[in-house]
Amino acid sequence: MTPPTAADLPDPRDGTGSTPDLSPEQLYTAQLERYAAEFGTLFLRYKTQAAELEAATRAVVNAFVIALGAHDPYTREHTQRVQNAALRTARTLGWSPEQLEDVRLGAVLHDIGKTSISDTILRKPGRLSDEEYGQVRRHPVIGSHMIAGFPALASARAFVLHHHERWDGRGYPDRLGGLDIPVQGRLLAVSDAVDAMLADRPYRAALSLNQVLTELKAGSGTQFDPDMVEAYLASGALDLYLLRPDDTTPDEHPTGT
């Protein structure tokens, strides 16, 4: 007798049809084939939906990045440099491939809240007033709210919201301190601040390597997680920058605004 296939069996869900005269073993085998076929169909559908979701997420991220770049060219370039440095630091810390993907996404989106800040403030040629600086300080919360409606971007939230917290608890927006700061924020804080120090700004020239190393040493254990500073330096992230002569002074505001 030819072994039955799943097609020989009636679908038990429709309550119709009769079971062929099969042995229990043949019936069991045919049922397994039917379940395997149905599982394969469901899995293919899931993969298709997952691919569509991933494509949609990439489109959202690209739209955010394009909007940010159009709003503030400096921030667009800053974002790319911070991502590269943060990835080096995370690799030095031994983060997993999945965590590295989170770093990649979080770094790209960390300043997205700045799209809500006026060009007048972002491109102001002089120092910011206290009121203007207060508006800039809102960008982590605004950015966190912007991505909150996208479940696929959930892993970026801690990077966006907490990259301006300080180890001593004097940062923003939540004034968290020490290990209460999510590790994503502690990681990104160093790369973000270093890039701000090493970039020309409207109100000052870029700092030199010696000044940056001095700032990092002074900020380790106060502004920054000491372990993150150590990992950043060990990663060679500073090699990503073309450094300037030592002829500048630090900005009066905390680094990495």
Give your account of this protein's structure.
It is a single chain. The protein is mainly α. 56% of the residues lie in helices and 0% in strands. It has a domain at 73-240: Hypothetical protein af1432, CATH 1.10.3210. The protein has helices at residues 24-71, 73-92, 97-109, 119-122, 130-136, 139-147, 157-162, 183-198, 209-219, 226-235. This is HD-GYP domain-containing protein. Residues 53-248 form the HD-GYP domain. Residues 1-23 are annotated as: Disordered. Pfam families: HD_5.
Query: Average pLDDT value?
Result: 81
From the N-terminal CA to the C-terminal CA, the straight-line distance is 78 Å
Rg calc: 26 Å
CATH-defined superfamily of the domain at 73-240: Hypothetical protein af1432
Label the structural class: mainly alpha
Total strand segments: 0
Organism: Deinococcus seoulensis
Protein name: HD-GYP domain-containing protein
Region (Disordered): 1-23
Domain HD-GYP: 53-248
Summarize the structure.
Pfam families: HD_5. This protein has ten helices and no strands.
Secondary-structure topology with pairs:
Blueprint: H1 24-71, H2 73-92, H3 97-109, H4 119-122, H5 130-136, H6 139-147, H7 157-162, H8 183-198, H9 209-219, H10 226-235
Helix pairs in contact: 1-2, 2-3, 2-8, 2-10
Pfam families: HD_5
InterPro entries: Cyclic_di-GMP/3'3'-cGAMP_PDE, HD/PDEase_dom, HD_GYP_dom
Protein name: HD-GYP domain-containing protein
